[in-house]
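RECORD TYPE: inverse folding
INPUT: structure tokens
STRUCTURE:
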């Protein structure tokens, strides 16, 4: 297993439905560590950069409107195989197809309101974390001493 970081977004529907605590709880209960956390009012520019890979898709316009419609919670999670662990905790892209017990399976019905984003690869995770966070906003967790490293 490889120690990885992943970028998680609680999308506007998750924030509006007051599911922030429930959603973060799913990841925490699983054992992933929060190493970055903030509420962000998403600009059109940030949304377009984040979803640049989907620029040619028919749902791109609605997707940008959705992600900029109210604040999102941006989170960096760290843990062994964090990318896959988080994706499996989130569930399939279409909530209707997501397994019960996953965030999307338990809270959603519509692909256009699927509550959470999670990076899909280590490489994309690194780029997304760089896009959403400054280095100074992240902390490190040392598993050897089971404690935080807080560099001032
Ligand atoms: P993912 O979030 O599970 O990685 P992606 O295929 O990367 O799924 O799509 C990014 C986001 O775009 C989805 O989470 C969802 O919000 C939106 N999306 C994907 N496919 C559709 C669609 O067919 N209609 C509307 N929105 C979609
Ligand atoms: Mg994706």
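DESIGNED SEQUENCE:
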């Amino acid at each position: 297993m490889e120690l990885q970081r992943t970028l998680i977004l609680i999308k506007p529907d998750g924030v509006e439905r007051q599911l922030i605590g429930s959603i973060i709880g799913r990841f925490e209960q699983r054992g992933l560590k929060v190493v970055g956390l903030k509420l962000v009012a998403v600009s059109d520019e940030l949304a377009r950069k984040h979803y640049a890979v989907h620029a040619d898709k028919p749902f791109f316009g609605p997707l940008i409107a959705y992600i900029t419609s109210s604040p999102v919670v941006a989170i960096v999670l760290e843990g062994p195989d964090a990318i896959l662990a988080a994706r499996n905790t989130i569930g399939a892209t279409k909530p209707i197809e997501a397994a019960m017990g996953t965030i999307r399976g338990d809270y959603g019905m519509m692909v256009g309101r699927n509550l959470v984003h999670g990076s899909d690869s280590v490489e994309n995770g690194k780029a997304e974390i760089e896009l959403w966070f400054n280095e100074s906003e992240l902390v490190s967790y040392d598993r050897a001493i089971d404690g935080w490293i807080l560099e001032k």
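NOTES: The chain has a mean pLDDT of 96.
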